[in-house]
Every structure is written in structure tokens, then in C-alpha cells.
Design goal:
- The protein has 347 residues and is of the alpha/beta class.
- The protein has one domain (5-59, 146-346): Phosphatidylinositol (PI) phosphodiesterase (TIM Barrel), CATH 3.20.20.190.
- The chain has helices at residues 28-37, 113-122, 124-133, 146-153, 170-178, 208-211, 248-258, 284-296, 313-322, 332-346, and strands at residues 5-9, 41-48, 54-56, 70-74, 78-80, 98-101, 137-142, 158-163, 185-190, 234-237, 262-266, 300-304, 326-328.
- Strand 11, helix 8 and strand 12 (300-304) form a beta-alpha-beta unit.
- Helix 2 crosses helix 3 (124-133) and helix 9 (313-322) packs across helix 10.
- The longest helix has 15 residues, at 332-346.
- The protein is globular.
């Protein structure tokens, strides 16, 4: 069995309230540290701005506001906050004017992990609001463009590029850029894709998730990349709105429609009451079953660890033992250590 790949979630993990990364998410510094520690790749979020820049940033809320992780560079005051209505796709601003905020955990380093997490959980909305009102900039670092990432790291990393937003032409822009860096390895993934129409003969037609695995999405960002000219592998991201999955047959049907090579699911799918539609497996057996089904159908499985809670070492270990092809964790050091120990024990 191949060694499980470690694809750092937004680099060294998420840095918003309730998370523990000590580097800003989706930042060059975060990717540098992840590479130094030994990850094989990084997951990064990419929007196509109104200026047609491929910005590496994760928006806030459904409208993808800039306000959570970025500040506007200002000649007089140094930095200004963004309003909730100022979104990544519509705001007329360049990457070079988008300053990165300090990570939430860095701003609370004088308190223990348990203490800051307890305060955050007691009032999540207030925690987010307080963070967005701060003006602390991360060592003058800016939101990078995708090209800046490629220029610095080249083929040293595998890139899981998650397409965000509502502009279907983003895929073509990514292809044009990747074409100039033929040595790099890329997976293009997204939550924003539309499944084929569900057959009226489906035995699971009463399940909403069977019809629309990710609910209503604003645009289909992966369809333009079917049979793309560079042969870049496509990853279908699941669990946009809920933690369960459609039936195995439906997953395979969607993968075939998009020519996907990767199925990417949330790490906690096996904790749902009915993890997979039409599957009697429950608990961790669900994950083992999913690995087996994907592998027998020529697909690879990646599990991503959510931002809503810190990674649990036991969860990371269970995923490695289940034999997933890749994990996308927030706690890079713990994940790498678990994989190393797993490989040592097998030898």
C-alpha cells in the first residue's frame, strides 16, 4: 500500500477564529513552513477576481467576503477593513493591495489552547466579529496570486487547487497558467459542480443529497474542465452543506460525468447517523468501505479536515489506518508524525 499523501489544508491549516494555525492560511509563508515540515502538497483556495487575477484566498460566508482574512492596504492609515459586502470577485482591488491578517491563534497566544477554544465556542459570532475588527497585519505579507505560488515552489509541491466563486471561466485561466509551468503536479477540485440529473428509476430518489450532493451551487466550475487539454486530474469535493454522502453508485456516476480521478470528502462523514445513502455500514467501517469502493473503481480518496474544530490525532490515525490516498489536515506536524509511525510499524 502506498504512503498516505499529506496535503496541507491552506498550507499550515486554517487561521480563522476557532482554529490553531500559527501562519495565515493560503499564505506563501504558510506554504513554506508546510514544505519545510515535509508535506507532499498543499490545498489552496482560488478565486478569479474582477481584474482576472487568480487570488489565493478563502472568502467569508456564502458571498465570499474579503473581510475575514484580508485588510486593504492604505497609503495614509496603513490598512483598512473590508465590509461584509466587499467580495473577492467583485471588489476592484489587486493582490498587492490585500494585506493578510494575523492568525486568530497568534492574537491569543497568551492564553492556553483550551481557554481560547472555550471562549470561542461560547459565542462563535462574537468571536468572529472581534477578530474582524482587529487591524493586525501578518508581517506585511500580501494575498498571493496563484502564479506567485508556482513561481516560488514550482514542482516541490503537489497543488490541490480548489476553485471558488461563480465565474465558470476560472478553469480556463488556471489551465492557461499551468500550461506555462509544465513540470508541476496539480489537482483541480471544487464544491461548485452540478451532478447529472438523477434517474427516475433511482431507488434513492427521496433523498435530497442523492439529487444534489452539494445542494444548490452558484455555478458549475468543473464542467468546463471535463477532458481538459492538459489532462489535469479533477477532484469532486463533497459535503458542502452536510456531513453525509449520496450512494456509492451516485458518487461513481458523478465521477464518470466529470472524468474525475479524485473523490474528496469531509473527515467526519463516518460520524453521521446514515453516512452513505443506501449503505448499511456505520461508524469507521463506513470509511473503510468508501476507500474500498473508490479504489475498486479506479478512484482515489482524499479526506479534508474541517475548520470548525481542531484536528483530533485519533481521527487522523483512523484515516491513515483506513488507507485513504491522501489527507488534507490542519495540524501538519501531528499528521506527518502519525503517517511516519504507521509506515514504521508496517515495516
Amino acid at each position: 500500500m502506498s504512503r498516505v499523501l499529506t496535503i496541507g489544508h491552506r498550507g499550515m491549516g486554517c487561521s480563522i477564529p476557532g482554529t490553531l494555525a500559527l501562519y495565515p492560511e493560503n499564505a506563501l509563508s504558510s506554504f513554506r513552513e508546510a514544505l519545510r515540515l515535509g508535506v507532499q502538497g498543499v490545498e489552496l483556495d482560488v478565486f478569479l477576481s474582477c481584474n482576472n487575477e487568480l487570488l489565493v484566498i478563502h472568502g467569508h460566508h456564502a458571498k465570499a467576503s474579503l473581510c475575514l482574512t484580508a485588510l486593504r492596504r492604505d497609503a495614509s492609515s496603513g490598512a483598512q477593513r473590508f465590509g461584509l459586502e466587499e467580495t473577492v470577485e467583485k471588489c476592484d482591488i489587486r493582490a498587492s493591495d490585500l494585506l493578510l491578517r494575523k492568525p486568530w491563534r497568534v492574537l491569543n497566544q497568551d492564553e492556553s489552547v483550551e481557554s481560547v477554544l472555550e471562549k470561542h465556542r461560547s459565542d462563535v459570532d462574537a468571536s468572529f466579529q472581534s477578530y474582524m475588527e482587529k487591524m493586525d497585519v501578518w508581517e506585511g505579507e500580501y494575498v498571493p496570486t496563484l502564479e506567485q505560488v508556482f513561481q516560488e515552489f514550482g514542482d516541490k509541491l503537489i497543488y490541490n487547487i480548489e476553485l471558488k466563486g461563480t465565474r465558470p471561466e476560472i478553469g480556463e485561466h488556471v489551465l492557461n497558467l499551468v500550461e506555462r509551468y509544465p513540470q508541476i503536479k496539480v489537482i483541480i477540485s471544487s464544491l461548485n459542480w452540478l451532478p447529472p440529473e438523477l434517474s427516475p428509476d433511482s431507488p434513492y430518489g427521496e433523498y435530497d443529497i442523492e439529487r444534489l450532493p452539494n445542494g444548490k451551487v452558484p455555478a458549475d466550475l468543473l464542467r468546463p474542465l471535463i477532458n481538459n487539454r492538459l489532462g489535469l486530474p479533477i477532484g469532486l469535493l463533497f459535503n458542502n452543506e452536510r456531513s453525509d454522502l449520496p450512494s456509492i453508485g451516485r458518487i461513481l456516476e458523478c465521477a464518470k460525468t466529470f472524468g474525475a480521478q479524485w473523490i474528496i470528502v469531509a473527515h467526519d462523514i463516518w460520524k453521521s447517523a446514515l453516512p452513505i445513502v443506501g449503505c448499511a455500514k456505520t461508524g469507521i467501517e463506513t470509511l473503510h468501505h468508501l476507500v474500498s469502493e473508490m479504489r475498486s473503481n479506479g478512484l482515489k480518496l482524499m479526506t479534508y479536515f474541517l475548520e470548525s474544530q481542531p484536528d483530533a490525532p485519533e481521527d487522523l490515525r483512523l484515516h491513515v489506518e483506513a488507507g485513504v490516498d491522501a489527507i488534507c489536515p490542519n495540524d501538519i506536524e501531528v499528521a506527518l508524525d502519525i503517517i511516519k509511525k504507521s509506515c514504521t510499524s508496517k515495516n
